[in-house]
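Q: How would the structure tokens look for this protein?
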Amino acid sequence: MSQSVARSRTNHETIARNSSLPLEAIETAYDRIEAERHRNCWIYLRPREEALEACRKLVARARTGENLPLLGIPFGVKDNIDVEGMPTTAACPAFSYTPWHSAHSVERLTAAGAICLGKTNLDQFATGLSGARSPYGPCASVADARYIAGGSSSGSAVAVAAGHVAFALGTDTGGSGRIPAGFNNIVGIKPTVGLVSSRGLVPNCPTIDCVSVFCNTASDGEAILEIIEGFDFEDPYSRLPRAFSFATGTEPSFRFGRIAAADLECFGMPECGELYERACERFTQIGGTAIEVDFAPFRQAGELMFSGPWVAERHSAIASLIDIDSGSLLDVTRTVLGSAAGYSAIDTFGAIHRLHRLRRDAEAIFAGIDALVVPTAPRPFTLEEMDRDPITLNNRLGYYSYFANLLDLCGVAVPNAILPNGMPMGVTLLAPAWHDRALIGLAQRFEASAGRAAFELKPGG
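A: Here is the predicted structure in token form.
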């Protein structure tokens, strides 16, 4: 699979003339998937011949002159996002249903010529950041099977990193579209909440859920975002962008916020902090000026996610879909949701008022910087460690990610460097809502500084 999203868009006519190119890509994808079932990254796989026939029909349409910018590109969809004719389980077999219509984002991708190969694994009902909370089996990092892939969009990230697909859709509420990217050495695009329609998404925390993108380069992510973004009146959480211009991320100089070395939290793995320092040096080398910022407002906002009443929104959303006490849920899922009972309406309004104050503190910090750079996750954990203490370690994973949607930030997670144990670690660029393109521009420059081959799919495992 040598084609990529960005390259396919520029070679549309060539691919339309040579139908073997996309068909070969589909065949290769299925060969890899079937050879790597042990990765547990797929819950449902579309029949091979069905995908090939869909590809042939798309090529025929392209030959008539129809513009299909993603012609023949294979992709995966997290199994809490609807795809017409494919079961949606949210990693809960008792919840399974087969939708008549695809999610809005999936409709746009297939209309552009992309081919969905199936549904990917996840932490049950997207409740987790490890990728180890699924009855369909845990997902491990492609770098080392002893370590978690990160979640909840674990299957989507692994499918991209293993070279099964060119890109995949995930979701992000508290880091699910970024942490798996970091632990699998790929890119994760977390759009501004409301930029991409959430219609057709199984709700988690509806006010802060968003569809995310996993891909191999920031350019690929930008190409996908251009297809799926846009206001959707039928989605009550969709938003119109603010009507003013932003920097593109290509300006020669920029200011980036960084966490002071003394304030870095790596939970007992200091070598992760060393890689963050290296990333900050690289941002300086490409024209950035580092500015130390007070991380306290971000940390305090993150604490509201699972140590505050937002878990009650999660409980409310999932309880509307399935009986939480029926025995259909994993014990860890039920335990997390059960904590919602400890919060009252008074607690909720108090937390909302506190969040508004923290948002103002964050606004003041971003007034002096173009982007905030944080570790995508503090450190990796093994599957064995997560099994022993799933809730404490899960909350540690979200230390640098939980706050983003609560503070109305957009983000791009990019690969950074490899730990001595072989595990990849990423960094995430964050900025206020609607600065998505500026962050992608900075991410592209960061990629170039590492000498990454643009537009290439991951080689097979």
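Residues 452-457 have pLDDT under 50 and may be disordered.

Residues 254-408 form a domain with the Methane Monooxygenase Hydroxylase; Chain G, domain 1 fold (CATH 1.20.58.1700).

Upvote if useful.
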